[in-house]
Design a protein that fits this description.
Structural class: mainly alpha
Number of helices: 12
CATH topology of the largest domain: Rhomboid-like fold
Order of helices and strands: EEEEHHHHHHHHHHHH
Strand content: under 5%
Low-confidence stretches: 66-75
Number of domains: 2
Shape: elongated
CATH class of the largest domain: Mainly Alpha
Radius of gyration: 24 Å
Length: 314
C-alpha cells in the first residue's frame, strides 16, 4: 500500500560559520560562548544549562556567586580606567590651585593657561590643546558626571577589549571629538572636558554589544545604551553650553573604533583590521585639523583673535 506523499521537508539550517577560538587561535570551531559570544574550541567549552560557556564567563559567574549579587567582577584588569580617572582628578586639583573652576563656574584664564581647546590658538600652532582639553573640566558637577561615566563605561569596555585597545579607543575618540569641535564649532569658543572621549567609550560599548545582540546580555545592554543615548541627545540639544559636536564626533569615532577593534576572521586578520581601522580614524583626525586650520588662518580677524586669546591666557 502506497502512502500519499506529504509536503516537502524544509532544508536543514545552515551550519554556523567556522571561526577560531579566542584563546587558541589555531583551533577552528563553530561554537560560541552563550554569555559573551566569543568563539570557543572543545578545550575551552564548559557545559552550561543551555550551550557552552568560556572559562572567563564561568570564572566571573563563580566570583559573583561567592561575593554576592550586584557585585560586578572584571576578569581583566581595569588599571587604565583607574589611571585615567586619577589623572583627571589630579588635573582638576591643579585647576583649583591656580584659580581655575569653582564648584559652580569656571575660570577662562586658568583654563586657557592649562590647555583648554581654543580654535584660534590651535590654528596658530598650539595643536596640543586637542589633547590637553580632554583632561580639564569646567566645574565640580562637570568632573563628577564625567568621572562617574568614565568609571561605569571604562571598566566595562576595558574588560571587554583589553587595556591596549581600550586606551587606543579612548585617545582616538577623544582627539576626534576635539577635532570635530575645532572643525565645526565657533572659533571663539573655549572648550574643556573628557566628555568626547567618554562618548567614544560609550560608542565602543554599543559596538561590542551589537555584535552580541543575539545573546540576552548583549540585547539588554543595547536597550540600556539606546535609552542613555537618547537621553544624552535630548540634554545636549536642550541645555546651552554643551558641545554636542564633540559628543557626536567622539561617539561616532568610538563606534567605529569599537567595531574594528575586534575585527573579523582569524587572529591575524582581526589584528590587521584593527590596525587599519585605527589608522583610518587617525587620517580623518589629521584631515579635519588641516582643513580647519587653513580655514581659520584665511580669516581677516585671525591675527587680532590670536593676540586676544594669547593675552587672555597670560
Amino acid at each position: 500500500m502506497d502512502l500519499p506523499e506529504g509536503p516537502p521537508l524544509p532544508p536543514p539550517p545552515p551550519l554556523p560559520e567556522i571561526e577560531h577560538c579566542y584563546r587558541h587561535p589555531a583551533e577552528p570551531t563553530r561554537v560560541r560562548c552563550v554569555r559573551c559570544g566569543r568563539p570557543i574550541c572543545p578545550a575551552c567549552m564548559i557545559p552550561a544549562p543551555v550551550g557552552h560557556q568560556c572559562p572567563e564567563c564561568v570564572e566571573r559567574a563563580r566570583r559573583e556567586f561567592l561575593l554576592g549579587p550586584g557585585r560586578r567582577i572584571a576578569v581583566r584588569s581595569v588599571t587604565a580606567t583607574r589611571v585615567l580617572l586619577a589623572a583627571i582628578v589630579a588635573v582638576f586639583v591643579v585647576e583649583l590651585a591656580v584659580g581655575g573652576p569653582t564648584a559652580l563656574g569656571d575660570g577662562e584664564r586658568a583654563l586657557l593657561r592649562l590647555g583648554a581647546l581654543q580654535p584660534f590658538l590651535i590654528a596658530d600652532g598650539q595643536v596640543y590643546r586637542l589633547l590637553t582639553a580632554m583632561f580639564l573640566h569646567a566645574g565640580l558637577f562637570h568632573i563628577l558626571f564625567n568621572g562617574w561615566a568614565l568609571w561605569v563605561f571604562g571598566t566595562m569596555v576595558e574588560r571587554d577589549y583589553g587595556t591596549a585597545r581600550f586606551l587606543a579607543i579612548f585617545f582616538l575618540a577623544g582627539l576626534l571629538a576635539s577635532a570635530t569641535s575645532y572643525a565645526f564649532g565657533s572659533p571663539a569658543a573655549i572648550g574643556v572636558g573628557a566628555s568626547g572621549a567618554i562618548f567614544g567609550i560609550f560608542g565602543a560599548f554599543v559596538a561590542y554589544n551589537y555584535r552580541r545582540r543575539h545573546l540576552a546580555l548583549g540585547a539588554a545592554n543595547l536597550r540600556w545604551a539606546t535609552t542613555l543615548l537618547l537621553l544624552n541627545l535630548l540634554l545636549a540639544f536642550s541645555i546651552p553650553g554643551i558641545d554636542w559636536r564633540a559628543h557626536l564626533g567622539g561617539f561616532l569615532a568610538g563606534l567605529v573604533a569599537g567595531a574594528v577593534a575586534e575585527g573579523w576572521g582569524t587572529r591575524r586578520q582581526r589584528t590587521v583590521v584593527a590596525v587599519l581601522g585605527f589608522l583610518g580614524l587617525a587620517v580623518v583626525l589629521v584631515a579635519l585639523v588641516v582643513w580647519r586650520t587653513g580655514e581659520l588662518r584665511a580669516m581677516p580677524e585671525f591675527e587680532p583673535a590670536v593676540r586676544y586669546f594669547q593675552a587672555l591666557a597670560r
